[in-house]
Amino acid sequence: MRLDEAGGLLAAESARYAAMGWMRGTSGNLSVVLGRDPLRLAVTASGLDKGMLEPSDVVEVDFHGAPVRGQPLAPSAEAGLHARVARVSGAGAVVHVHALAPVIAAERNPGGIVLQDLEMLKGFGRPADSRVVVPVVPNSQDMRVLGDAFEAGYDPATPALVVARHGVYVWGDDLVHARHRLECLEWLLRFTNAVEGGA
Ligand SMILES: [Zn+2]
Hints:
Strand content: 15-25%
Domain Class II aldolase/adducin N-terminal: 8-193
Strand order of the largest sheet: 3-2-1-4-9-8-7
CATH class: Alpha Beta
CATH architecture: 3-Layer(aba) Sandwich
Family: Belongs to the aldolase class II family. MtnB subfamily.
Bound molecules: zinc ion
GO cellular component, one term: cytoplasm
Pfam families: Aldolase_II
Protein name: Methylthioribulose-1-phosphate dehydratase
Number of strands: 9
Oligomer: single chain
């Protein structure tokens, strides 16, 4: 995929998430894999309103999340974790948003959020009668620390990671696949929060 093509897709998806209230301020970031040998990702640029991105508001990064070549915009500070997730999971797209439900669920379940016997698990890629534990890792400003914590608890069957007091990462074959998974996971976490008490 070309960088400008990826930029158009990232801008359109970002606008949808912003409209959902999941990318408030300039928070959150999305990425799509451009190539695998070597690994290259297109990541939304840092510090911009995600509801108003242009296709050019994108940065190409390497497997460390560092920009390749001279590019005018800075990549998201969290590009390093996107690259780590794409490398370890083989995903084609990684989405990270600051939705509230995952953060509340992690606050109540710092050892992992259990989801069980729920129809919406199918939209997350798991059978409705399965038991899924969504990993929770402590927040950090160091992407290597976050990446190590992600990899330590990585389960190939569970395409999500919640960062406590921060937000959620979900990945899939492409941006639409990742969004469908995230939409269903967010519903599942809202349900869990409501059942456990409070919204
Ligand atoms: Zn974030």
